[in-house]
Amino acid sequence: MATRKNTDDRRARIEALRKAEQARERRNRFITIGLSAVVVAGLVGFGVYVIDKQSAKEEQREALAKQPIAAEKSWDAKKLGRTHVDKAVSYPQKPPVGGDHHQAWMNCDRNVYKEPIPNENAVHSLEHGAVWVTYNDKAPKDQVKKLEDRVKDTSYTMISPVQDQADPIMLTAWGKQVSVDSASDKRVTQFFEKYIQGPQTPEPGAACTSGVSGK
User: Fold this and answer.
1) Residue 191: how many CB atoms within 10 A of its CB?
2) pTM
3) How far is Cα 117 from Cα 105, in angstroms, rounded to an integer?
4) Is the peptide bond before 95 cis (omega within 30 degrees of 0)?
5) Whose CB has fewer CB within 10 Å in the chain, the N or C terminal residue?
6) Taking the chain (215 residues) in consecutive chunks of 10 residues, what is each chunk's mean pLDDT?
7) Helix intervals (H) in 67-130
8) Considering its fold, how many domains does the chain have in total?
């Protein structure tokens, strides 16, 4: 009898341990599912937050691009010559805003030029939808550096010195031009948003690489 009782007790303990293990597994499973749900919800929430933030930023950029740019000068883009030439062109603006130009464009994909570049090649870049940032020796060096950094982060832009331009810092697109006071002038952002591959571009989508690289 004692042996049978011991056997029954042993079976009862084993059964109790088995049930406890099953309960622990269920508990762990519920915790895992709960944590997974929290993580997924967090990721979804974060994703929605990022998308909303990006959308808001894009809307802000679009709204900024639609605003008139103070003191901007405009020329009829369709009336600017677009013939390829192999000689120097006398442009009425400094820097030029368009017109006949060399068949090779300046590389204008985040390109920083420390020396002057040929107008005829630069104008071809404008035709491709680039924005050309220029400065002379009256521009503060720290502002030039900030503009160079911005160009390095922005496709379809280039920067170079133009000593005989009218103002220290100028931005030029095909048929568009504005002088700004500094790198932090809000018109820099406006001009970039509005005219990089903007509606004034005669050849949208054309390359800004594989052209002339300068010195």
Assistant:
1) 24
2) 0.74
3) 11
4) yes
5) N
6) 60 70 76 74 66 59 80 94 97 98 98 98 98 98 98 98 97 98 97 97 97 86
7) 119-127
8) 2
